[in-house]
Amino acid sequence: xxxxxxxxxxxxxxxxxxxxxxxxxxxxxxxxxxxxxxxxxxxxxxxxxxxxxxxxxxxxxxxxxxxxxxxxxxxxxxxxxxxxxxxxxxxxxxxxxxxxxxxxxxxxxxxxxxxxxxxxxxxxxxxxxxxxxxxxxxxxxxxxxxxxxxxxxxxxxxxxxxxxxxxxxxxxxxxxxxxxxxxxxxxxxxxxxxxxxxxxxxxxx
Length: 205
What we know:
The protein has 205 residues and is mostly helical. The chain has helices at 4-27, 36-50, 53-80, 98-103, 106-121, 127-145, 168-204.
């Protein structure tokens, strides 16, 4: 997988991570790293340096789909002074440190980097299966290790709605099904679509 361009991308991404990690630790503490999107950055970093296409592909769909939702939601928030923001409401909360909020703009830049990467190194269709395996581990850890009011990975208030339908352990199991169904596999479809567009563009050129 490694080429000179990919190596340069790995170096650049490493510099970003050296900046981002201490900012998040200082602002939110280590629990925040358990967010799926935050964990994705660690997986991507490892995949870039090891040339592991499967690991990289396991995060592509998730990052692309979340970015596709996050970006317009953030723009709506900007246009409304935060009033219309849902997923990105925290970006307009002055109680959160400004620098930490600024680092969340990676939700815009990281999908673009991954589109470029899969155009250069390819995409492994087994990715969403591996991501599902990650979720089976991450979601119980999130429930066990994080404070409920942090709502990490939406385990307590999915989409801002208080979870009152199931006992907490049962809801963790429910989310193990919902994450692949609503995020990983639709994201996989989006990744394949983007990959096809990239190939078509190369042919047309």
